[in-house]
Amino acid sequence: MGAFHAYDIRGIYNVDFDKDTAYKVGYFLPTLLGTGKVLVGRDCRTSSDEIHDYLVKGITDSGADVYDIGLSTTPMVYFGTANYGFKASVQITASHNPAKYNGMKVSGENALPVGLDNGLGQIRTWIEEGRECRPAEKKGQVFPMDIKKDYIDFLNGFKEDFSNLKIAMDLSNGMASLIAKDIFGNQPYYIFDEMDGRFPNHEPNPLIQENVRFLKDLVLQTKADIGVIYDGDADRVMFVDEKGCFISPDLMIAVLGKHFFKGEKRGNRVLQDIRSSKAVGEYLAPMGGEMHTWKVGRAFAARKLREIDGLYGGELAGHYYFRDFFYSDSGMLASILILNVIAGLKRNGTSISSLISEISKYRNSGEINFRIEDKKGAMDAIRDHFMNSEKPTAYMDFDGYRVEFPEWWFNIRPSNTEPYLRFLCEATSDELLDEKVNEVKQILSTQFGAALG
Predict the structure, then answer these.
(1) Which of 114, 87, 92 is nearest to 42 (CA)?
(2) For residue 433, which phi and psi values (nearest 5 degrees)?
(3) What is the full DSSP assignment across 168-203?
(4) Residue 282: exposed, middle, or buried by beta-carbon count in 10 A (0-12, 13-18, 19+)?
(5) Which of 48, 95, 277, 335 is catalytic?
(6) How far apart are CA 51 and CA 18, in angstroms?
(7) How many degrees, rounded to 5, is the angle at CA 398 between CA 393 and CA 401?
């Protein structure tokens, strides 16, 4: 059962889970969420059809009905779940992972995420205990459902005039290819815009810079104002500026403030994850933004944004959540709003790189991964080392540790999906940043035998 993670079910198909797992997830899900109908979508991976068939068989064998929307982005499933009042949905996808992976993202009523701590753990236990999957006397039915037009109409409602922009767009051969041209038309310069679950051009993970090099080249070749790249299931989006430089996704939380804090808005709360740059909150504060920090991952962020009734939020991994999108994340909606902002910048004679330089005031290490056995001991050692030598200005301990000091801060946390301890640091100068990163590497290697991941 190694495919069950904090946020979803995911792993190498036929290694970490198989069609039997998919069947049992389908069978137990209606009981878990107390519903007689489940919305189901899938991505274009080569294994998605088989997983779909067995998931659907499990749902219908339990006596529940399936509303099948076919090929879909993950946010399209969130939209369908909340917009049409479903109490359960599954998107078959492995998001940004390589082609041999697959998985299932489960949502409940109002598209609230179902993670390990509020449902997936129970299903895993039932599977491990060998709980019986006896087909119901009256099996459920499968109803095809087309929600694509409604979703596109919804997204188009947020578009302003960005006809002045030159846009370069990498669809990663993923699910963004399903709807991007219905939204953006022929305006962008597209690459890798055909759905292909083998991902022949690059892995669908835009956080890995090797995967973004094609978009960087396209931006420079076309003299685009902005480059846009989606991950495999289009719930995440990232950006390249007009100079061909990758923009750290957390800084786009600040850029979105130029949309959300113009005119009168309901409330001013914004959510960031515990890894986000300190610069984000500092930039939004004069606009009236009230920054809240929380755990990494949709299973936590979507629930937290709803809890605080935030306007929007974002993560370092390129997820952006919106009150106006059922407190869920959508790469397409995020890109529409950011293109609106960039079009306004261009009309005023400035660029996205100029805005980012205005926002970003710190040197950032990026996430550094360590392979290590004693993750908790290592985290505590790093925390104690620095807190015993300097007085912190802020301390958070809900997703690893985030400790802030006057001129620098760090976050150290265990990965929820990979065998890593992750460290990230920001400082006011390159020299201070290097000093702190080297201290951490020294402690982790000498005391805990850590190796860089």
Answers:
(1) 92
(2) -60, -50
(3) EEE-TTSGGGGTHHHHHTT-SEEES-S--TT-SSS-
(4) middle
(5) 95
(6) 8
(7) 50
pTM to 2 decimals?
A: 0.95
User: For the segment 426-450, what is each residue's pLDDT rounded down to a tens digit?
Assistant: 999 999 999 999 999 999 999 998 8
Q: Which residues contact 153 (CB under 8 A, 6 or more apart)?
A: none
Of 201, 314, 162, which is closest to residue 249 (Cα–Cα)? 314
9-12: strand order across its sheet: 9-12, 101-108, 88-92, 37-42, 65-71, 142-144
Q: Which 3 state secondary structure label does DSSP give 143?
A: strand
Using DSSP's 3-state secondary structure scheme, residue 206 falls into coil
Structural tokens at position 217:
């080249």
Q: Following CA atoms 75, 76, 77, 80 in sequence, which dihedral angle do they give, to the nearest 10 degrees? A: 120
pLDDT tens per residue, range 155-202: 999 999 999 999 999 999 999 999 999 999 999 999 999 999 999 999
Please check whether residue 33 is in contact with residue 108, taking contact to mean a CB–CB distance below 8 angstroms: yes
- Whether residue 172 lies in the annotated active site: no
Residue 2 CB partners (closer than 8 Å, separation 6+): 11, 16, 17
Distance in angstroms (rounded) separating the CA atoms of residues 380 and 446? 15
d(CA 226, CA 351) in angstroms, rounded, equals 9
Alpha-carbon span 112 to 89, nearest angstrom: 10
CA 115/CA 122 separation, integer angstroms: 10
